[in-house]
Amino acid sequence: MSDRLEAHRTELTGYCYRMLGSAFEAEDAVQETMVRAWRGHDRFEGRASLRSWLHRIATNVCLDLLKGSSRRARPMDLVSPSSAGSPIGTGLPGTTWIGPVPDERVLARAGDPADTAVARESVRLAFVSALQRLAPRQRAVLILREVLCWSASEVAELLDSSVASVNSALQRARATLAASGNDLAAAPRQPLDDAQRALLDRYVDAFERFDMAALTAVLHEDCTLSMPPYSLWLRGRADVLAFLRGPGCGCRGSCLVPLAANGMPAFGQYRAGGAPWALQVIEITDGRITGLTSFLDTERLFPLFGLPPRDEA
Fold first, then answer.
1. Max CA-CA distance within the chain?
2. Omega cis (within 30) before 102
3. Residue 241, SS3?
4. Quick one: which of 185, 191, 166, 170 has its CA closest to 265?
5. CB 229: neighbour CB atoms within 10 A?
6. Same domain, 172 and 207
7. Where is this region: Disordered (predicted)?
8. Residue 188, domain member (yes or no)
């Protein structure tokens, strides 16, 4: 039984991550799901598939966790952009923010290319943040219908609801996401191509040499920089580079270790001397880097991504 349960762990973790916006909460939710399933497996009579039974349990776990909690967000969801010279301020609690997740924890290694593209799109930071704007049951409906491709009748059975209610919830959820610019009906982003890999190589080289002219060439003029747990964020290449020259000058001499997070390229950043500093998630659009999110909670995030506590290279 344990092997049959474990076969569903990646999909369940992706589902719970989209619901909760935190890799750590998602893993806790999946573990609770597995415990409940193991304890109740003698009552599982096979009237539904094991997959649907596990998702029913996971949905109930997530809905319980979401009761009374505030929605997670990104800095740009909470405040207006600041200038490079603005005070960084005080960090907010970790429960404020959408957190990153390693691709291998939430994305299947193989599958239909179209389904894989949708799955990758649906764990992007911006999309997961948009999901948090939905009421929890709407969130579940949209993920089950649009990402996992369940039928309306299957979702209705899982939620002890009606097909009409599920379709109504899906319609409202789609409208909310479309208004936020995060519509899965749009063409999902494809895996990195050679040009994007070359762009990332140029970014790594420029960042590690702290070459502002080279960084200018790879950053989009409207790129953003955010640094959870701080609410401050910047918009525009000029402000991002001014920040790096000023308050961010401690990044000079950094080393970047390639990773994959939220269906996007990412890097573990170690400052000169080997101290961990940030987990960077990179967004690319139209041949330029349009988003840099530096998560600074390295004490928790580096072990999650399998990164050593120091760079000894």
1. 64
2. no
3. helix
4. 191
5. 17
6. no
7. 76-95
8. no
